[in-house]
Amino acid sequence: MSEITVRVADWHRDNAELRRIRDSVFVAEQSVPPELEWDAEDTDALHFIAEEGDYPVGTARLLPDGHIGRVSVLKDWRGLKVGEKLMQAVIAEAEKRGLHQQMLTAQVHATPFYERLGFRIVSDEYLDAGIPHVDMVRTSQ
């Protein structure tokens, strides 16, 4: 396996790859309706792509208010620290932009992953697109 790198994506230039990853993870695997996956916030978000070599394998987005979302890694690359590298890049960029509090909605099964990155649960469990979620917050030191 080549080294995993993370870069800021260009929503227009990288759109096909962003869509390929998110459609594979959320729409195909998790049965999230496409109309819920794709929203108007995508055009205002800062997008990130994790790549093995030059092949995109993961993505995430950062909204101007510090919300992190659409964190997704293709199935064959899970467990290889791709998500961790992706989140570290998003958190670093958020802090660089003065967003010292980052928020996200996490699928319940993924909360231990986010807790290792410093996020804490701040809500009760609820359903989003039929999947159990909780809200989580991280505050920079």
UniProtKB/TrEMBL annotation:
Gene3D superfamilies: 3.40.630.30
Cited InterPro entries: Acyl_CoA_acyltransferase, Bact_Acetyltransf, GNAT_dom
GO MF annotations in UniProt: acyltransferase activity, transferring groups other than amino-acyl groups
Pfam families referenced in this protein's UniProt entry, alphabetically: Acetyltransf_10
Classification via CDD domains: NAT_SF (cd04301)
Keywords: Acyltransferase, Transferase
N-acetyltransferase domain span: 4-141
Protein name: GNAT family N-acetyltransferase
Organism: Pseudomonas chaetocerotis
